[in-house]
């Protein structure tokens, strides 16, 4: 077995294919690669990144395309490239390992492993030679190789220390249940970290953190406390008007490098946009801000225009760079805007902060941070025409690369967001797009025995699903069931939940593992409750199970959700922040509002009631539209409920009690307002 060539040309991941021509003898992670390391006695150099990662591109150009550095790598290491999006199980494990060494995680991740896969040293980006106090990558390669050959006792100590740390991270200690009082304490603590002027958590860099904002929004809806509302609105206003938003093409970048949300790290990720569309829709239902409605529509149209693949599913990301320069596709000079807009240029530049000399590195990032509200309808219409002209002009530029693999969990987030917005804004075309994406995954990213696969690219689905895939697509299935009334979506969700129960449950300590019991074995099985930029799988599973319980009345779903919360109660009490999705699930299970409409889905009286429900911000609510005569289990609070004199009737339930039947839209609006 040899590693005398670069083997990434055999892969389907766009990120791995970016490196197929490096002089480094890269391999993908596989049992064969680990066997080669054991056979040769060389350590593994693991490099994990993703296609839209700016610093991944920088390190590739500086080091991985260098013949001298490649020679050091090839001589001393078995070199493994991992697409962190395609293999989140590997990336998460070794990110944890890096953080246990006292270093910050991030990408590109650079880890050195024993042939058995045990980590003993690592970092992130390294320059090719010493720079700004950072060691050069060539020097690091020599030092680690010498460490491996001449100081095995040090390697063993490092392996043991990191391994013990990973074991501690996997522990879930029992504790008092997550109480309403604890949830309120955490909300107050999170509120204290919000930047009151610009929104967002803390200072630069700032990430949207949609799950945390939803947690604060739920706290406002639950308590009426004004500071929770202001925290969410201030953040969303600045994100929507900042440079982190693409004001010409739609869509949000991954994060802002400054505290004002002006200068983004320009890559656009599908998962951020799905979560922000969902959150903006929830908040719009209460606030009715035209700004939020505009950003929802523009971002969905961006996803359908630029991210949808021919198969109907959504691609993963757009790169930050074009022509080897970060943000070049998105920024403007005053002269460029003048040339496109002519007499309208001055007005546009004043609104969008396009200034002589630029607002960022000599050019201008379009933004509207000078004012949070939209202008008059007439002024906004003129600006929309201006933006269309600039967008057309921008289309002639070299576009950033697109990572066109489809990921099951990220698609689940976007499908759920589009399907929810489709109901709220009555857009059948959006619902059709969400349904098509879901149907492709169900048909082509699923094995013969119903198991999901994580990634699809170049006509091939591969890699066994992680917990997040089932959780996020399960949630999407429930939204589509609500939106269409088609029982196949509910059935699919229930089937997936049973697969999770069989293959992912931690039988001894509770909760669900990130990987299946029959997946490729890594050195540890992670169990995650903390949110990252993505919502945690255990948190989303809690919400899905809670909603299934409220929909069906079947106690097994409540028991499973309770078991997740019990498993992570100790972790939440120790860490407090970072568990927003799990806490939102706890609230849905404990306080979940259930609305049942008994009536024909297509009837005008049913539609009138639905319009009221879709116009109300009701976080975590469960909605069922059932035909007259539908039987509920005796344990369901809506059991035995029916139409009233042939008219559609709504029942608003919480816990074991339901309202009297409501047939008037105005009465339903009053009832929902009173229940909040």
Summarize the structure.
The protein has 676 residues and is α+β, with helices and mostly antiparallel strands. 49% of the residues lie in helices and 10% in strands. Strand 6 (255-256) and strand 7 (264-265) form a beta hairpin.
What do you see in this structure?
The chain contains 24 helices and 19 strands. The protein has a 5-stranded mixed β-sheet with strand order 1-3-2-4-5, with helices on both faces. A 4-stranded mixed β-sheet has the order 17-16-18-19, with helices on both faces. β10 and β11 form a beta hairpin. The chain is globular. The model has no long low-confidence stretch (mean pLDDT 95).
Outline the fold blueprint.
Layout (H helix, E strand, L loop, with lengths): L13 H5 L7 E3 L2 H10 L3 E6 L4 H11 L2 H10 L1 E6 L4 H13 L8 E5 L5 E5 L13 H14 L1 H18 L10 H13 L17 H14 L2 H16 L13 E2 L7 E2 L2 E2 H18 L2 H18 L9 E2 L2 E2 L2 E2 L7 H8 L3 H8 L24 H18 L7 E2 L2 E2 H17 L3 H17 L8 E5 L2 E5 L2 H18 L2 H17 L33 H16 L2 H21 L4 H12 L1 E6 L5 H11 L7 E5 L22 E6 L2 E2 L6 H11 L1
Helix pairs in contact: 4-6, 5-7, 8-9, 9-10, 9-11, 9-22, 11-12, 11-16, 13-14, 16-17, 16-18, 17-18, 18-19, 18-20, 20-21, 20-22, 21-22, 23-24
Helix percent reads: 40-55%
**How many helices does DSSP assign?**
24
Enumerate the strands of the largest sheet in spatial order, edge to edge or round the barrel. Answer: 1-3-2-4-5
Structural classification: alpha+beta
Number of strands: 19
Average pLDDT, to the nearest integer?
Answer: 95
Radius of gyration of CA atoms, rounded to a whole number: 26 Å
How far apart are the first and last residues' alpha carbons, in Å? Answer: 65 Å
Shape: globular
- State the assembly state of the protein chains: single chain
- Stretches with pLDDT under 50, minimum 5 residues: none
The description of the largest β-sheet is: 5 strands, mixed
Q: Approximately how much beta-strand content do the residues carry?
A: 5-15%
């Amino acid at each position: 077995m040899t590693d005398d060539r670069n083997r990434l040309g055999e892969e389907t991941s766009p990120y791995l294919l970016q490196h197929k021509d490096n002089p480094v003898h890269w391999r993908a992670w596989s049992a064969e690669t680990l066997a080669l390391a054991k056979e040769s006695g060389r350590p593994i150099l693991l490099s994990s990144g993703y296609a839209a990662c700016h610093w991944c591109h920088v390190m590739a150009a500086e080091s991985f395309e260098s013949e001298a550095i490649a020679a050091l790598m090839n001589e001393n290491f078995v070199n493994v490239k991992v697409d962190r999006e395609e293999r989140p199980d590997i990336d998460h494990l070794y990110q944890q390992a890096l953080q246990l060494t006292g270093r910050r995680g991030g990408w590109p991740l650079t880890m050195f492993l024993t042939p058995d896969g045990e980590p003993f040293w690592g970092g992130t980006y390294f320059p090719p030679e010493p720079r700004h106090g950072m060691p050069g990558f060539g020097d690091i390669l020599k030092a680690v190789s010498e460490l491996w050959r001449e100081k095995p006792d040090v390697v063993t100590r490092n392996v043991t220390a990191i391994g013990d740390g990973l074991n501690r991270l996997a522990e879930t200690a029992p504790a008092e249940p997550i109480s309403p009082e604890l949830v309120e304490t955490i909300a107050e603590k999170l509120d204290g970290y919000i930047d009151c002027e610009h929104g967002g958590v803390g200072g630069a860099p700032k990430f949207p953190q949609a799950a945390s904002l939803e947690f604060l929004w739920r706290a406002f809806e639950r308590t009426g406390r004004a500071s929770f509302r202001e925290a969410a609105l201030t953040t969303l206003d600045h994100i929507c008007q900042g440079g982190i938003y693409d004001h010409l093409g739609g869509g949000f970048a991954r994060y802002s490098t400054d505290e004002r949300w002006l200068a983004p790290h320009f890559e656009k990720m599908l998962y951020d946009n799905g979560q922000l569309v969902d959150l903006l829709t929830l908040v719009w239902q209460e606030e009715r801000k035209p700004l939020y409605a505009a950003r929802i529509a523009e971002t969905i149209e961006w996803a359908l225009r630029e991210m949808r693949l021919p198969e109907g599913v959504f691609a993963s990301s757009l790169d930050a760079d074009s022509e080897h320069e970060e943000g070049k596709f998105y920024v403007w000079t005053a002269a460029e805007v003048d040339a496109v807009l002519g007499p309208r240029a001055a007005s546009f530049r004043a609104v969008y902060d396009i200034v002589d000399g630029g607002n960022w590195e000599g050019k201008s990032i379009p933004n509207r941070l000078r004012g949070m509200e939209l202008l008059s309808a007439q002024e906004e219409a003129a600006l929309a025409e201006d933006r269309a002209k600039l967008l057309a002009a921008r289309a002639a530029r070299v576009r950033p690369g697109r990572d066109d693999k489809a990921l099951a969990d990220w698609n689940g987030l976007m499908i759920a967001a589009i399907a929810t917005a489709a109901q709220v804004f009555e857009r059948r075309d959006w619902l059709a797009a969400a349904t098509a994406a879901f149907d492709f995954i169900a048909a082509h990213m699923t094995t013969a025995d119903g198991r999901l696969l994580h990634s699809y690219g170049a006509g091939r689905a591969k890699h066994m699903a992680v917990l997040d895939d089932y959780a996020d697509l399960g949630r999407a299935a429930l939204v589509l069931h609500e939106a269409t009334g088609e029982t196949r979506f509910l059935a699919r969700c229930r089937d997936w939940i049973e697969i999770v129960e069989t293959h992912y449950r931690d039988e001894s300590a509770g909760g669900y593992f990130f990987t299946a019991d029959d997946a490729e074995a890594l050195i540890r099985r992670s169990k995650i409750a903390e949110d990252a930029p993505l919502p945690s799988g255990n948190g989303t599973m809690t919400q899905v199970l809670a909603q299934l319980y409220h929909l069906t009345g079947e106690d097994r779903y409540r028991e499973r959700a309770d078991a997740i919360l019990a498993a992570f109660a100790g972790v939440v009490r120790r860490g407090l922040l970072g568990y927003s999705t799990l806490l939102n699930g706890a609230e849905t299970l404990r306080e979940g509002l259930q609305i049942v409409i008994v009536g024909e889905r297509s009837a005008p009286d049913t539609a009138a009631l639905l319009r009221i429900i879709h116009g109300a911000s009701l976080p975590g609510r469960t909605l069922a539209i059932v035909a007259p005569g539908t039987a509920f289990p005796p344990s369901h609070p809506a059991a035995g409920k029916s139409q009233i004199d042939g008219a559609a009737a709504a029942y608003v339930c919480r816990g074991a009690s339901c309202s009297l039947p409501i047939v008037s839209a105005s009465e339903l609006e009053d009832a929902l307002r009173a229940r909040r």
